[in-house]
What we know:
The protein is of the alpha/beta class. About 50% of the residues lie in helices and about 10% in strands. β6 (about 395-400), α16 and β7 (about 425-430) form a beta-alpha-beta unit.
Amino acid sequence: xxxxxxxxxxxxxxxxxxxxxxxxxxxxxxxxxxxxxxxxxxxxxxxxxxxxxxxxxxxxxxxxxxxxxxxxxxxxxxxxxxxxxxxxxxxxxxxxxxxxxxxxxxxxxxxxxxxxxxxxxxxxxxxxxxxxxxxxxxxxxxxxxxxxxxxxxxxxxxxxxxxxxxxxxxxxxxxxxxxxxxxxxxxxxxxxxxxxxxxxxxxxxxxxxxxxxxxxxxxxxxxxxxxxxxxxxxxxxxxxxxxxxxxxxxxxxxxxxxxxxxxxxxxxxxxxxxxxxxxxxxxxxxxxxxxxxxxxxxxxxxxxxxxxxxxxxxxxxxxxxxxxxxxxxxxxxxxxxxxxxxxxxxxxxxxxxxxxxxxxxxxxxxxxxxxxxxxxxxxxxxxxxxxxxxxxxxxxxxxxxxxxxxxxxxxxxxxxxxxxxxxxxxxxxxxxxxxxxxxxxxxxxxxxxxxxxxxxxxxxxxxxxxxxxxxxxxxxxxxxxxxxxxxxxxxxxxxxxxxx
Length: 500
C-alpha cells in the first residue's frame, strides 16, 4: 500500500482525534428498568470466567484486538480515515442527539426542501458508512469487499413497519429476491444469513392484536386462541405484561384472514431460504409487538425444523437488555430440546431503548429493560455461556452479535475451552456494518466465523435503521472509542512511516 506524505497540521489533528478517543473510552450507563433479573432455570447466576487462555498454534492464532497493523491490514488509508471521522462524529453527544432527533423528525421530513436536503446529507454521510447501497447489486459489491477482508455478510433489505397487506406483499417479494440473489455466483459463500423483520410482512395492527392476545393467554392459561399454531414458549413470569391491561377481544374474521396471509408470507420466505440453503435471521423489535414476532418466528422454526445434527434454518433474536431475556431463553431452549428441535438464537443487547423507556413511563410501569448497562452486559454474558454450553450438547446454534470487546473475547475463549471448533457452523459472531471493526477483524483473524450486518435499500427506506444507529452510538462510547483509538494509532503509524 502506498501512502502520501502528510502535512504536520494533519498529523496534529490526528493526534488530537486520538487524544479525544482515549478521554472518552468509558461506557455510559443505560437508563432503564428498576426491576432486577429473575434467575432463569439452567442459567448460571453469573458468567463463568474461570476459563484458561487457549493455546496458540499456527492453525489456532491468538485472539488479539490490540495489533492495529494486523487488524486493519485490509483497509486502505482512505477508508480508515473516513471510518475514523464518521465514528468520531457519531460519538459526540450533541452530534448524535441532533442526528437522532433530525432523522426522527416528522416536521423536518414533512417539508419537501428540508426532506431533500436531509436525505442528500444523510446519503453522503451516515448512509454511506453504515449501509451497503440502494439495491442488491450494491449489496453484492459490499459483500465481496467483506469477503476479501475475511468477513461474510448478513443481507438485510431494510424494510420494516408495514401497515397494509399490499405493502406487506411487496416487502415479501423484496425478501424473496434477496434470498434468490444468494444463490448466484460468489454470493453462495459471501452471504451467511438473510435478515427479515416480521413487521415488514405483517401489518402493525395485527402484530399489536396478536401480542395482546398472547400476553392475555399467558395470564389466563385456559384462554383459547383458535388461530394459534404449534410454537415455543415466548413469555415468562418476568416478562413485561403492562402493554395489555384488560382482556382483548378475539380476532375478528377479517383479522384472522389477515393473519393467514401473514403465515403464508412468512412460510414462503422460509421455504425459499430452505431451497437456497441460506438460513434466516428474524430481527427483534419493540416489546409492544415482540410476543407476536416471537410466536410467528417459533411457529416457523417448528414447521421448518432441521434434521438432527444439522444447523437451524431459522434464528430468532433475544435482546439481553430485557429483564426477562435469560428466563425466556431458558424456557424456549427447554421446550425445543423436548421437541428435538435444534434452536438457533441471535443474541444482541437491544436497540429500542428510548422507545421502551417512553412507553413504560407513559403507562406508569416499570421499564422492561435493565437499570444499567452493567446489568445488560452481565445478562448478555450469562446468555452467551448458556448458549455455548448447549452448543456442546448439540441443541443450539448461536450468532453472538456484540460490539463489546470484552464480551467478544470472553465468548471466543470460552468456545475454544469448551472444544467448539472456531469454524463450526453452530457459532457465528456478528457486528453492524461500519462499526466495531477491531472486534470483527480480531475474531476473524483468530479463525472464527464473523459477519457484518449489511443493510441496503433506498435512503428513505433505511432512515429508521439510521436513526437507531445514531441513538445506539450514544450508548456505545466505550467500544466506539476503542476503535477510534486503534484506528488513530494505525493512521499515525502509516502516515509517520510515509514521512520517513
